[in-house]
Each structure stands twice: as structure tokens, then as C-alpha cells.
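Hi W., the glutathione complex you wanted:
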Amino acid sequence: MAKTTTKSAKKPAAKAATKPATKAVTKPAAKALKAKPAKKAAAKPAAKASAKKSAPKAKAKPAKAGKGGLKLSMLKPSVNNMSVRVFARAAGLDHFETDVWGVTRSPEYMARNPAHLTPMIEDKGLPRGVLWESCAIMQYLANKHGLEKFYPKAPAKRAMIDSAMFYLIGTLYPYVARATYPALNFPQYAGEVGHSDAHPDRKSEAQKAAAAAIAEPLEVFHSFFRNGKPFIGGKNPSIADIRLAATLEFLAVIDYALPEWARDYMAAMEKKLGKAYAEPAGDVRGYIAYVKSQATA
Ligand SMILES: N[C@@H](CCC(=O)N[C@@H](CS)C(=O)NCC(=O)O)C(=O)O
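Structure:
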């Protein structure tokens, strides 16, 4: 059975968390969590996750990357990280998680990952030993372990999963980030209104415009990619579904009114994947509950 253990980074380096970021969980989020660090954000600790129900029947060989399996460096409040955390559990991969809150910009981390991003896996078979970008990680692990259930091999089917994921990262996610990051206390992307010295009213308008823009690409996932099927992957969730459902979790922070199909879809994802979904989702939801409680305090 696959095991997940979580190690916390030793004391999160305050220095690392104060450098300016373009698209990262850094200073403001760190500040929000400083009084009550990751503990608060983590509604349910990610220890001992198992994915017995949803583990694929055949072909999935446990990942071997040292004693505790595959090493996954992650940040609990992040849906980019949630995607890989859900996938690793659902696929039954033997892995362990290291919480790198506050250390992504440390010299040690950046020497391995100059993009200072999470999620990141470490695997000797990789040319540079590490891999970041949530979708690339899921693609790689699915390829490596023959997890066709999550990532079909047939070129045409696979192309649809890839298209859905690229569309998410390139089109939907930027809107979600612009709409939710201010409420999440995450830094905004450089060059955007939210990152500038603009008047708070202008920033609020920009945030609202981004939230309003979500509806169109969201509907594309429903009408085009799902096309009447329960999931983008068909009867079973694919890596594109994991990526989509995780992304939609962030919308709770702005009380975004999801269409009925999306609410049903997220419930179906959680039902199908069980604990593999619920546990990492609990960390994101815990963080959202925390920032919301701070906003109303
Ligand atoms: N497109 C990337 C986004 C990754 C990303 O933005 N990661 C953020 C957390 S949400 C991060 O690790 N930030 C830490 C830093 O930049 O120092 C993915 O899907 O993995």
C-alpha cells in the first residue's frame, strides 16, 4: 500500500519568505501565516495517507526514490501542490512529502530549483534530478508507472488531457489567480494592476473583472472537455480532472458562485478519489478558512 508521510522544513527561513515574488506564496502569505504557521493552514495533517480504493489495479509500480519513496517538496495551502498531492495518493505511489514553507528561496533549494517553485519531485532518473510544474510532474509519474487510467496512452485521448491542462494553466488559472490571490494574501503577478501601486479601487475592479472572466473558460471544461461524461478522463478522473478540481478549490476564498455542474463535479471527484482527494483538499480549505477568519476578525 502506498504511504505518504509529511516532513516539515526545519524553521521556515523568514528571509526566504520576504523576497519579492512574481507568482508565489511568499511574503504576504507568509505574514498571514506567521502568527499561526502552517499548522493553522493544515486542517488535516497529510500523514499516513493511503489511496487504497482509488489505486489503479494494474501496472502501477511503486516509485522507488530512496527509503521513503518519491520525495515531493510542497506547500500545503497551494492548489498547484494539491494537484500532485492528490495524484500521488490516488495513484498509490510510495512517496513522502516535505513541507518547504519559507525555504523555496533558500540557496539550497534554489541551487536545485532556480525557479523556486513547488510542487517539486526529486528522482534520479531525471536529467537534472528534479522536476517542477504540477502537470509535468503528473505526466512524468503517469508515464513512468504506466498509469494509463489517469493519463491515457492513445495519442488522441492523451491530446485531450494535455489540451485541458494547458488550457487550464494558460487561460483559466491566470484568471483564478488574479481573482483569488488578493484574498489569499498571495503576491500578485508583476506587471498587473494587483501588483502595482494603483488605488485600491482599481485593484478591486481588476479583481472583479478577473472573477467575471472565469465563467467562460470554466464552461469550456464542462461543454467541450467533459462533453457529457462524468470526467474529462471519461468514467474516471484523469490528471486533467485532478488539476481542474484542485484549481476550483481556491474559488471558495471569494465565495465564487460555481455553476451547479461544477459543484456536482467537485463532489464527484471527492467521492471517486476519497481520502486521496479529501486530505490535500483539507489543507487548502483549512488555509482558506484561516484567511477568511483573519479578514473578518
Ligand atoms: N504552474 C506551476 C505553478 C507553481 C507555483 O506557482 N508554485 C508556488 C506555490 S502556488 C510556489 O511554489 N511558490 C514559491 C516561490 O515562488 O518561492 C505549477 O502548476 O506547478
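The radius of gyration is 18 Å.

W.
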